[in-house]
């Protein structure tokens, strides 16, 4: 009986370890991230420029899409991630648009995508905290 319990425990432990190593994760979404108080009264053009500079400094190509909207693309090797950054003087959102060769299936994607979006979010936050009028 003890051997059966040990075998079952070993199987469950193996499944847990392999499951934890999965490269796919739920798509990370940034929704209504508050703009730091210091940047809330920036002119619209300065707010846009600050966000676009944060993206380009992280290796994204950023293009103005419409007032309050930026399309950002990160391409490397045979991979690509595309996001839309919508912003106002109160908050910003980073929405998933598409990926290429990042194992996207439904609402999951390769963990590299999430890492890139988190780094972009952190850089935007850092830049906005330091923004000058």
Describe, in plain words, how this protein is organized in 3D.
- The strands form two sheets. Strands 2-6-5-4-3 form a five-stranded antiparallel β-sheet, with helices on one face. A two-stranded antiparallel ribbon has the order 1-7.
- Helices cover 40% and strands 33% of the residues.
- Strand 5 and strand 6 form a beta hairpin.
- By secondary structure, it is an alpha+beta fold.
- The longest helix has 20 residues, at 111-130.
- The protein contains three helices and seven strands.
- Helix 2 crosses helix 3.
- The model is unreliable at 15-21 (pLDDT under 50).
- The chain is elongated, with a radius of gyration of 20 Å.
- It has helices at 2-20, 44-57, 111-130, and strands spanning 24-26, 30-34, 61-66, 69-76, 79-87, 91-100, 108-110.
- This is Lipoprotein.
In short:
It comes from Azospirillum baldaniorum. The chain has 133 residues and is of the alpha+beta class.
Number of strands: 7
Mean pLDDT: 90
**Spans where pLDDT lies below 50 across 5 or more residues:** 15-21
Sheet of most strands: 5 strands, antiparallel
How much of the sequence is in beta strands?
25-35%
Briefly note the structural class of the backbone: alpha+beta
The coarse overall form would be elongated
Order of helices and strands: HEEHEEEEEH
Rg over alpha carbons:
20 Å
Instruction: Determine the number of helices (DSSP H or I, runs of at least 4 residues).
Output: 3
The side-by-side strand order for the widest beta sheet comes to 2-6-5-4-3
Percent of residues in helices comes to 25-40%
Gap between N and C termini = 73 Å
Protein name: Lipoprotein
């Amino acid at each position: 009986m003890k051997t059966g319990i040990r075998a079952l425990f070993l199987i469950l432990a193996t499944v847990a370890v392999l499951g934890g190593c999965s490269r796919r994760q739920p798509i990370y979404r940034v929704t209504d991230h508050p703009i730091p108080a210091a940047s809330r009264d920036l002119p619209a053009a300065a707010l846009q420029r600050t966000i676009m500079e944060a993206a380009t400094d992280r290796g994204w190509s950023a293009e103005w899409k419409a007032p309050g909207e930026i399309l950002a693309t990160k391409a490397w090797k045979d991979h690509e991630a595309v996001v839309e950054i919508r912003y106002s003087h109160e908050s910003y959102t980073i929405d998933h648009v598409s990926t290429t060769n990042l194992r996207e299936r439904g609402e999951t994607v390769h963990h590299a995508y999430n890492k890139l979006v988190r780094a972009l979010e952190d850089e935007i936050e850092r830049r906005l905290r330091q923004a000058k009028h």
